[in-house]
Known about the structure:
There is one protein chain. By secondary structure, the chain is α/β, with parallel strands linked by helices. Helices cover 30% and strands 21% of the residues. Strand 2 and strand 3 (54-58) form a beta hairpin. 49% of the residues are buried.
Amino acid sequence: MVSRGEFLQRSAVASAIGAAAAAEPVQAPAAGGKLRVRWFGGGVYELATLDDSAVVLVDAWIWNNTGWKAFGIEKPPELQSASAFAAHLASRHPATLFVALTHDHGDHMGDYFELLPALVSAGLPVMTAGQSDLFRVALAPKFKTAGLDPAKVVANNGAAMNFGGTVTHGGIHARLVPAMHSTFAGYPAAGFILDIGGTRVYASGDTDLFGEMATIGERYHPQIAFLSTGNGAFTMGPDDAAQACNFLGVAYAVPVHYAHNPLVLGTQCGDLFRASVAQASPRTVVTVLRPGESAIIG
């Protein structure tokens, strides 16, 4: 009988072989890019170039995010409301702003339809995208209710993107990749490959470990991975996320999606992930953040 670990390892090998033989090659990113990253708690975070010319928000659950309580940290003023956050972003004068939505669970899009109108009202150059059917069917009425025209704020003239599809918004380039997870509306959950500031990031979204992560690594060569690590009822945990680093071949990794509800691992999860990575993918440097904290990676 094949164990789960053996099955995933075999799947990864097969995926890598298939990727090398059949997948359209994607040019590896140039070395040397650095990003400033900030964790908002749970699975939600920001990526920014050091000059703030390009900013990516991965999911949108910020002022209602409960991922701070377990750490005993109070949210700073700029993260306590949609208007405050929009004013904070506007003060940084980004040339391009992209909101990547992985899926429709409340701990990822709970503030999404309050955030977007605030960003538009602040005059920010915002575009958003995620899995195309989610946007064109399930979310279409919600955009109307929020007073937003999808053709103006959703990439690809409102069509968003599907697996294998791409979005370019200013200096940001995004590709949609699979995630092993559920959604409320029944459309596929997703992760992203994000090119920003000369750095390529894999944003896993909520997911279990799956062998096709090796294909993602072989095809896209991400340098940084943000990985769900909270285990419990919903996603992979620290050990499997560490194996994901090995499959992906990333130089840097950041654990997210923990300590934000009672069914996932608590504040110790980041250190557990770091210890697991030291065994499973020792070439990968782990950055463990606290909610609200920023770090420069690259």
